């Protein structure tokens, strides 16, 4: 379970978020759409597959016999996982933006970088070097059931409350500036036709 969780966070989540980078590179004309007759997207996915093989092999090796650079306690493992994932996403975001960098991007990328630096400092400076006491096993089934029930209750209350506020303010009238839109029923105004070029969406 630990191997699956770490692999999912370090490989699947970054891949799902960064796999659109080649599209941005091709659009900015910094990377050709085809490299050696193979789409750039395929090259990117192939690189991630190779990375995945290496990471999974390292995790399996660590599970059988600890790797020296890997932390020995759960606190260190959690910190390492968080930091690797954090900076992987920061680097991935920057490599997407750098191909079409503009002055206004300096603020956006600077804030992302500063946020990552602050998070890293808080994580490492304000955490204890050792965990006091033994780590006890947690009954996640009970926690999950409780979270699901509370989530359903809160979502239901929120939906009903939002619906009631909207009905109290607008009644059957559409919001000012809006268009009456009904998707289903005999009074449906939605259309299945595609909007014509140059015309706003109905």
Keywords:
2 domains, 2 strands, 62% helix, 202 residues
Structural commentary:
This protein has about 200 residues and is an all-alpha fold. It folds into two domains: about 1-130, no CATH class; about 140-190, no CATH class. The protein has six helices and two strands; from the N terminus they run H-H-E-E-H-H-H-H. Strand 1 (about 35) and strand 2 form a beta hairpin. Helix 1 (about 1-20) runs parallel beside helix 4 and helix 4 runs antiparallel to helix 5.
Unreliable stretches: none
Spatial arrangement of strands, main beta sheet: 1-2
Helical content stands at 55-70%
Report the order of strands and helices: HHEEHHHH
Total count of helical runs of at least 4 residues: 6
End-to-end distance: 49 Å
How much strand?
under 5%
Shape: extended
- What structural category do the secondary elements indicate? mainly alpha
Biggest β-sheet description? 2 strands, antiparallel
Mean pLDDT: 83
Total number of distinct structural domains: 2
Give the strand tally.
2
**Rg to the nearest angstrom?**
25 Å
Give a brief outline of the structure.
The protein is an all-alpha fold. The chain folds into 2 domains: 2-130, no CATH class; 140-191, no CATH class.
Describe the SSE topology.
Blueprint: H1 2-18, H2 21-27, E1 34-35, E2 38-39, H3 40-64, H4 74-97, H5 105-125, H6 140-170
Antiparallel strand pairs: 1-2
Helix pairs in contact: 1-3, 1-4, 2-4, 4-5
